[in-house]
Structures are given as C-alpha cells and as structure tokens.
Amino acid sequence: MQNFHYNQLISFFANIFVLMAFILLLPNIAACEDAVYKEEFEIILNQLDNITEKIETLEDQKKTTQQKETPEKSVEHLKSDIDYFVDILEEVEKKSIVDRIDLRAELRTRFDWFDFTGHDTIQFTDIDNGPEKHEQVSALPSNRFRLNLKATVGSWLQFHSRLSMYHIWADDDYAVYPEVNFINQSRIPTDISLKVERVYADLFFEPINNIPMALTFGRLPTTDGFPTNLHEDTARKSTYPNMAYDIETDGMGLSIDLSHFTGLKQSAYRIVYLKRCEDFERYTFGKTMSDKKGIYRVDDWAVGDVEILVSQLETFLPGIFRNTFFLVNFVYIPDVPPNDARFNDDLYPFYYDQSGLLFVDHPQSLGKGWKTTFYVESKNFLNLQIDAFIGASYMEAKADGATRYMINPSVAGLPGPPIDARFAYETYKPLLDALPNLENLFKQLQAAPPPVGMINDDGVSDRNAHAFHVGFRYQFPIPQLKNPKFGVEFNHGSQYWLGFSDASEDPLHKLSTRGKVWDVYYIQRLNRYLTFRLGYTDVYQDYSYGSSFYFGAPHKLDHHIKNTYFLIDARF
C-alpha cells in the first residue's frame, strides 16, 4: 500500500512537471508564428526573383530575334520558345489543379485522468450489483492524427475526405467487438493505421429555378455535430446535432436550399438514407464460427442489415436573433435486427449445441423506433461574447420480439414444450432425481440470460425516453491572452434513452449517458496553429446500456465517473 501511494505521488509530480514545461515554453511557441510568417515572406521573395529572371530571359530572346537570322536559326529559336512556354503552361496547369485541393493536417496529444466508483454489473444476467469497484487511470496519453482533404472540381462538384489515426501511446492493441465496430472504428483509440472516417462528394444542381439542391454520397459527415464546434473551437463539421446522430455511416442524402422561399439565411431541408450492411465470411472472436466462404455469403447468425432514415429542417432566425441557428431532426429505424452473442463464452453453446438440447430462438426483428430532436444555438448572443445552445430529444421504441436462450426438454426425455433455459431447473427439479446427469447442467442454466429485446427483456414492452443538453461558452475580452474561452455543459438522459452518439470522441460518450453529466472546459489559443484545452467531466450513470447499444433492458447503476483532461491541438 505504501508503494502504491509512493508511485502515485511520483506520477503526480511528473505530470505537474510536464504541464509546467508547456507553460514555460508558451512564449517561445508563440514566437514560432512570427517565424512562419518570415518563411512565407522569403518564399514570396524567391518567387518574385524567379519571375524577374523569366522576364529578363524573354527580353534577351526578343533582342536576338531582331537580329538577322537564317531560316534554320529562326526555326530553332521558335522551337525553343515553344518548349519554354510549354514548361510555363505546365506549371500554370499544375498550380490550377493544386489550387483546387485544400489539404490540412491535425495533431492532438491528450492526457486523461479517470476515476471510477460504483458496483459492477454482470452482463447477460439479472444481477444488477456485482462487486464494488474503485478504479483510477493516471495521465493516460493518446495521439490523434487527421488528414482533411477538400477538392473543388467545379462549381457543381466538391469532394471531401478525412483520414484518422487515434491510439494510446505505444499501444498496438485493437478494439474488441461489440464495443468498437462499424459505428465508431476511427473515432476511439485503436491501432496506428489510418482509417477513413469520412469521404463523400457533393453534387450541386438546380432542377427548378431558385431551388438549389445538393446530392451527397459516400461515407457521410455524421460525426462532430452540434455543439462539438463550441468545445473544439472550430467551424461546424457535421449536419446533425450530436444528440440526434453521431455515428460513422455510409449512405446518400439530398439537401434542398429553401432560403429563397423563407427569406431566412441558410434555410434548408435534408433527407438522408443510411445503411449498415455486414458481409462476414466468418467470426473470429477466439473461435471459428462458420465455415462459409465467399464475400457475399453471410453467416446465418450474423447481425442483419440496419436501415436508417434521417430528415432535418434547419435555418437561421431573423432580426435580433440573426446569429441564432434552429433545427428539428427526425431519425427513423424501420427494422432493428436481433443481437448476436456468440463471442460470449457462456452463450456460445446455445448456438452450437450438436445435441439440440440448447438452442436460440432468433426473431426476424426486435422492433422499430424513431427520435425527434430540437436544437438551438446562438453565437455572440446579443453581443455579450456568449455562445449558448439548448437541445431536447424524445424517442419511442416499438417492440416486435426478442432473442431467447432456450432448452428443448424432449431431447433429454422430459415432457413439455421448449422453455427459457434459466427456468429449466425450477421447472424440472422434481424429475431430476432420475436424471442426475442433468441436474448440474440445469443448475448452471439458472445463470442463462433473460430474453434480449429492443431496450427490454421480454420482447413485448414498448419504450419511450427523453434527454436534454444545454450549455454556454464565454469569451474573455483579453487580447493579450488571445481571448480565451470558458464553457459549461450539462446533459441528462432518461432510463431508456438511446443517444446514437457512440462515435463521439468524448471518451465517456456523455450524450449516451442514462443519467446526468456536468462538463466544464477552458480553451487557450496560442496562435492560429496551436490551441490548449483543459477540461473536467463528471458523470453519474443511473442505468447501463443493456448488453450492448439498444439490446436488452438497462441495469440499475450507481456509477460515478470523473475525468480530468488536458490536450494540445496543432492544426496546419
């Protein structure tokens, strides 16, 4: 115990030393901006020298051509001039292409101090309170690197992409299903490979006068929604508010500019079709799940396709609220496929019991759901140097079935129809004296999971939920400190809330919390390239996420999670 406290003390002073070093280096780093300007100025001077040299060359050639030349000499000079101007045209052509491409890089180094207290839960059981835990992580370091590319092919077509790498320092581990998969694979720490977070094209056209439209297709910008722009101190990076939808997805959408009809700035209506389509040859969670081959052959137990429809109406408001943005978003999922739990060692036998005693009752669908979100954001509200926002969501889930873990008693020579495996011992206890080999098995099956439905454990209960998110950011009028910013946010989610924000780079995914969260931060810009942020997040989780995402009924929790973090952003 003494060694533990000694190590913690050493770690604490080491972290303080690192932070002090950054503070002492601030003036030198700020001076780097002037150095960059000097480099750019020198590049411009070199370009002017090159242009002057080319002009002098042209003047010399002109004097030469004024002299009497033989026809052969004239042809030779003409050929030289053509070659020279071809070189110039090639340079101009290259520049015109490069000018259409905007390539930017981002590097973030972050340190997190986590503190967790509360009782653990035991997945796939009815046990709400497991062992009590108190866990801490001190100064967990991570790096995130991004390449952002925008290419304007013409007034009618634009191309956007973002490559992301996000990993913990010197870590070569990879994420494990289902915590990390198709919905957030480039948004939380994994390995050091670059992943495509977004890559999409905007096709602009105007089929009807005064109604411009844009068709967007590819891996869409469905991450970094409102109010990420405030605590990241950047421009808007996504179409949707984070409360509505913050998940990596592929699809296509149509945006319609309504400004001509409403008379309001940036009025638009959007409708988007998204789809998750899995194509597995086999599962490899430590075991071979299928022997099927071929890229279009899907395993029988694989999670089915998920289709999502999103529509959104958005606009800036008039008058004194002209800097206030309002939107209403609607998300609809017409069919939720059942879960697949073969990666769990305890449930694996239900899927592959050759005797037929254990089996899984797998429905076609768990149900459907929809969510409506209202969001308002105002920049520099009433010229008070305050940016503020408020968002509210309401959702409903309609049940249609559940995945059930069953036994077929007839295989063991017992009477009756198939029943939930967890009730086998209670049901057949009087008959087990004659079947001693089954007694131990049926006792173990008491720990089998309940049915896993869409936010329920019976497959028939409909659910509704709500959440809200409010916050503000104040800009201090201190030019000597580059006008730093201070922000406060609060959000709350009810028992059956589904945040759809699993791709948020907040490591605690606060907008998915079934409980309440306080979040405060301080932003210090150093120059146009470097920004520091210091923050603190306090999370009270009242309910769990079932077995995963929208699968299963939530467990009652008493989790209290605190995270203090410090990060450095470099953008070029």
Description:
Helix content is 21%, strand content 39%. It is an alpha+beta fold. Residues 1-6, 21-27, 29-37, 175-180 and 282-286 have low confidence and may be disordered.
Task: Itemize the secondary structure elements and their pairings.
Blueprint: H1 2-66, H2 71-99, E1 101-119, E2 132-154, E3 157-168, E4 195-208, E5 211-219, H3 228-231, E6 250-257, H4 259-262, E7 268-276, E8 306-316, E9 324-336, H5 348-351, E10 358-361, E11 367-378, E12 386-399, E13 402-407, E14 419-420, H6 424-428, H7 436-444, E15 452-453, E16 463-475, E17 485-493, E18 514-525, E19 530-543, E20 556-571
Give a concise summary:
This protein is an alpha+beta fold and 572 residues long. Helix content is 21%, strand content 39%.
CATH topology of the largest domain: Porin
Identify the overall geometry: elongated
Oligomer: single chain
Mean pLDDT: 82
| Helix content percent band | 10-25%
Total number of domains: 3
Given the structure, what is the number of helices?
7
Through-space gap between termini = 46 Å
What share of the residues does DSSP label as strand, in percent?
Answer: 35-45%
**Estimated structural class:** alpha+beta
Number of strands: 20
Q: So, the CATH homologous superfamily of the largest domain?
A: Porin
Largest sheet report: 16 strands, antiparallel, barrel
User: In sequence order, what are the helices and strands, one letter per element?
Assistant: HHEEEEEHEHEEEHEEEEEHHEEEEEE
Per CATH, the architecture of the largest domain is Beta Barrel
List low-pLDDT spans: 1-6, 21-27, 29-37, 175-180, 282-286
Radius of gyration over C-alpha positions, nearest whole angstrom: 30 Å
CATH class of the largest domain: Mainly Beta
The main sheet orders its strands as 1-2-3-4-5-6-7-8-9-11-12-16-17-18-19-20
